[in-house]
Specification:
Length: about 110
Protein backbone atom coordinates (compact mmCIF):
# COMPACT_ATOMS: atom_id res chain seq x y z
CA UNK A 1 0.00 0.00 0.00
CA UNK A 2 1.35 3.41 -0.95
CA UNK A 3 0.68 6.47 1.16
CA UNK A 4 0.46 10.04 -0.02
CA UNK A 5 3.34 12.08 1.46
CA UNK A 6 0.77 14.53 2.86
CA UNK A 7 -0.98 11.75 4.81
CA UNK A 8 -1.23 12.31 8.54
CA UNK A 9 0.23 10.08 11.22
CA UNK A 10 -3.27 8.95 12.19
CA UNK A 11 -4.15 8.02 8.62
CA UNK A 12 -0.97 5.98 8.19
CA UNK A 13 -1.62 4.21 11.50
CA UNK A 14 -5.16 3.32 10.37
CA UNK A 15 -3.92 2.01 7.01
CA UNK A 16 -1.25 -0.10 8.68
CA UNK A 17 -3.83 -1.51 11.08
CA UNK A 18 -5.84 -2.69 8.05
CA UNK A 19 -2.67 -4.46 6.87
CA UNK A 20 -2.41 -6.37 10.15
CA UNK A 21 -0.10 -4.09 12.15
CA UNK A 22 -2.37 -4.25 15.19
CA UNK A 23 0.00 -4.14 18.17
CA UNK A 24 1.07 -0.80 19.63
CA UNK A 25 4.69 -1.09 20.68
CA UNK A 26 6.50 1.00 23.26
CA UNK A 27 10.22 1.61 22.98
CA UNK A 28 12.58 0.77 25.82
CA UNK A 29 16.34 1.01 26.04
CA UNK A 30 17.02 -2.45 24.59
CA UNK A 31 13.63 -3.87 23.51
CA UNK A 32 10.07 -3.12 22.45
CA UNK A 33 6.91 -4.17 24.32
CA UNK A 34 3.20 -4.14 23.65
CA UNK A 35 0.88 -1.90 25.68
CA UNK A 36 -0.05 -4.69 28.11
CA UNK A 37 3.64 -5.54 28.65
CA UNK A 38 2.99 -9.21 27.85
CA UNK A 39 5.04 -9.25 24.63
CA UNK A 40 8.71 -8.28 24.65
CA UNK A 41 10.99 -8.31 21.60
CA UNK A 42 14.71 -7.55 21.40
CA UNK A 43 16.35 -6.30 18.17
CA UNK A 44 17.12 -9.86 16.98
CA UNK A 45 13.42 -10.71 17.36
CA UNK A 46 11.93 -8.20 14.92
CA UNK A 47 12.43 -6.41 11.64
CA UNK A 48 11.29 -2.99 10.56
CA UNK A 49 9.23 -3.22 7.40
CA UNK A 50 8.58 0.47 6.76
CA UNK A 51 9.45 3.87 8.18
CA UNK A 52 7.40 7.08 8.00
CA UNK A 53 8.60 10.48 9.14
CA UNK A 54 6.26 13.28 10.16
CA UNK A 55 7.49 16.82 10.67
CA UNK A 56 5.47 19.43 12.48
CA UNK A 57 4.72 22.48 10.40
CA UNK A 58 5.48 24.99 13.14
CA UNK A 59 6.56 23.06 16.22
CA UNK A 60 9.69 20.85 16.40
CA UNK A 61 7.99 18.92 19.22
CA UNK A 62 5.66 17.52 16.55
CA UNK A 63 8.48 15.65 14.80
CA UNK A 64 7.80 11.93 14.97
CA UNK A 65 8.71 8.71 13.23
CA UNK A 66 6.51 5.65 12.78
CA UNK A 67 7.94 2.15 12.33
CA UNK A 68 5.89 -0.75 10.90
CA UNK A 69 7.34 -3.82 12.64
CA UNK A 70 7.07 -7.57 12.00
CA UNK A 71 8.27 -9.91 14.71
CA UNK A 72 10.16 -13.04 13.81
CA UNK A 73 7.62 -15.16 15.71
CA UNK A 74 5.52 -14.88 12.53
CA UNK A 75 2.42 -13.85 14.47
CA UNK A 76 3.02 -10.35 15.74
CA UNK A 77 2.93 -7.16 13.67
CA UNK A 78 2.61 -3.67 15.04
CA UNK A 79 3.67 -0.07 15.03
CA UNK A 80 6.04 2.03 17.06
CA UNK A 81 5.77 5.82 17.14
CA UNK A 82 8.69 7.78 18.55
CA UNK A 83 10.11 11.27 18.52
CA UNK A 84 13.30 11.81 16.59
CA UNK A 85 16.19 14.16 16.93
CA UNK A 86 16.89 15.73 20.30
CA UNK A 87 13.56 14.45 21.69
CA UNK A 88 14.27 10.76 20.99
CA UNK A 89 14.43 8.26 23.85
CA UNK A 90 17.80 7.01 25.15
CA UNK A 91 18.51 3.58 23.61
CA UNK A 92 21.05 0.80 23.69
CA UNK A 93 23.56 0.72 20.84
CA UNK A 94 21.85 -2.37 19.41
CA UNK A 95 18.46 -0.60 19.28
CA UNK A 96 20.04 2.51 17.75
CA UNK A 97 21.59 0.36 15.02
CA UNK A 98 18.31 -1.42 14.19
CA UNK A 99 16.36 1.84 13.97
CA UNK A 100 19.11 3.66 12.07
CA UNK A 101 19.42 0.84 9.55
CA UNK A 102 15.67 1.03 8.84
CA UNK A 103 15.88 4.81 8.54
CA UNK A 104 18.72 4.59 6.00
CA UNK A 105 16.79 2.02 3.93
CA UNK A 106 13.79 4.30 3.79
Amino acid sequence: MTFNPMTTLTEVMENLKKEGYTVNFNLYENHIEDDSRTLRFHPVDFQIDRVYRFEGMSDPDDNSILYAISCRDGRTKGILVNAYGVYADPLSQEMVEVLAKAERAR
